[in-house]
Amino acid sequence: MRNLFAMLAATTFLTGAAQAATIYPLDRATILVNSPFDFKIELDEVHPEGDLAVTVNGKPYAEVFGKPAEFVAEEKGEDDAALGSALILRDLALAEPGQYTVEVKAGNEMKSVTWEVYSTAETAKAKNVIFILGDGLSVAHRTAARIMSKGMTEGKANGRLAMDDLDHMAFIGTSSTHSIATDSANTASAYMTGHKSRVNALGVYADRTPDSLDDPRVETIAEALRRTTNKAIGVVSTSELQDATPAAVVAHTRKRADKAEIVGMFHDVQPEVILGGGSAYFLKADIPGSKRKDDKDYIQLFKDAGYALATSKDELAAAAGSNAGKLLGLFHTGNMDTWLDRNQLKKGTVDKFPDQPGLVEMTKSALDQLSKNPDGFFLMVEGASIDKMSHPMDWDRAVVETIELDQVVALAREFAEANPDTLIVVTGDHTHGVSLIGTIDDNRPGDEMRQKVGVYDEAGFPDYVDADGDGYPDSVDVARRFAIFASNYPDHYETWGPKLDGPFQPAVQNENGEYVANEAYKDLPGAVFREGNLPKDNDTAVHAVDDIVLQAAGPGAEAFKGYMEQSDVYKILADAFALGTVQK
Amino acid sequence: MTRPQDPIRFRPDRRACLGGLAALLALGAPVPALARAPALTFDELYASYGVLGLEFSDKVKLLTGKTVSIRGFMAPPLKAEAQFFVLSEIPMALCPFCSSDADWPDNIVVVYLDRRQTFTQPNQMIEAVGRLERGSWIDPETGFVSQLRLREARYATV
Asked: What are the boundaries of the signal sequence (chain B) (predicted)?
């Protein structure tokens, strides 16, 4: 008994006295061999440099890392708050695969982390990788897209999505370094760097200093491809190109909102094909429509770098025939409109930007251009608006976006049939709290709209028709339609049907910064007020922590199986491309 | 999308609210300028929207420097101490990252009030009257970039 007390006392003493320094990369980081990254130690207290002891696998760190780090006597936080000492070594690269245990001791502060530095196959399994990401792609989106697009008879789907038949599958965990929950920045970044990070961060670990551009960097896949191969790189999205997912291919910032800087990062890497929205950040500040605060004209800078420029569907088609070798397509100042708005409803901003191409056309142009490279390519395609329409719970738009994404998968599979050395990966970056639970049928009896919801046997099958066979419903405005609901929401009005007048905007902000129900929907027939279950500073439904289903086909795809962290996916891409070996 | 890293929330202090309320009460009936000022609508701000930039309409060019009225919705201010608010065509659901001007729609008008007024509910349409100013301008206090502004403005609910 006395021993137990003594032991408890000792444990308590130890935990009380030892402060935890932070080491980046974090414990259990997996690092591609020879891949440059920033090493940083953050101490809680100020220490003289001489008191700091750092070893790697028991040897002094500078001996293993090959160079000394910069000692920062005292880092400063917001308002000059003292943060403690730090040690920073930029652009470290480790040539030897294996375990690296880094131990830090400074006064009472101690910390130990272990990294795994991995090598890859010596020769590439895949010449090309097409990485297709449905932002927010959840199981409900897929199920609804399949039924809406292909139909269902007596409980069996009348057809299959292109993504349904990819051979290999894994469950992907999406949590971030500081939370079980996540956002598109750090999740896309985990796919594109192999390192998990914190919400809002891209291509960096989130350190404690306020500067968003000084955080410890890790290598992105685009940088790794430039370092080790002559492959072409393509980035295609329906969002602003500075948005989290496309940015993750090239960017390093703690703050995804650094959109003007992210354009500069695209210019640094110069992917051969860049297609999407977000031209506002390419325009210099004095041009109406610009969202820059400086006079950098990135339209001109990209042209000077040899890019052909396309700003409409027709120009994109024309540019596909050009031999410029590099293609910049900007089709909107902000996020591009959804398939439903572009093709059927003509709402959103389609009146202002009537000539936007769709994701399938953009992907086709990208493949045409990139496949001219004899060394192969990496193409990241994002269906961004699955997420952008799921946040405001505009389920019709989100599901139709999923159908569009699936047509991109079909196109990729067609390409892979002709080019079997192509790995296709289809996944999401996080899920939404969304479920398809039955149907809503205007012809069901009842005065209240909730009486029109058909569940279990009463749900039956929806009325969507695809008479023209294009894979999209001829109309989403049908009598018996999907009943899709969110698990979480701000205050809003439930209107029980498709939003034919433009994307749903469930809540608006009041003068106290709280989101309240948007009264524009209050008087729609059948609308009912639904009190939110989220904190009032949330404008829309949020991401779910639920796993994502990843599917893949082609050389290297067999490595996807079971449960994997998002950061593990990068290792498979690196192995498929043999990024551990310089091939140029 | 996600929550902001450093959300900038508007927290009105009590004194500002009372002051604003007094100002609103003092306004009482619509300001006389409302009746006379030529009206601009959000549809009339730009002649064209393009990927490579927007073009101001002839009407905006003609009315620049003159007192005009515009109807729209007031977005909550970026910062409590901001000297301006954003007038938008429809009630704004600011995306979670709107701690900057980053994710606003193209067609907004920034309104600089000539005196403090209270903030309205987001679902309430207002009419703002002020001297129209055009061209890119960065607010020195907040760094907010705008293309069209109303200066020495006032507003009333409609």
From this structure: 1-35
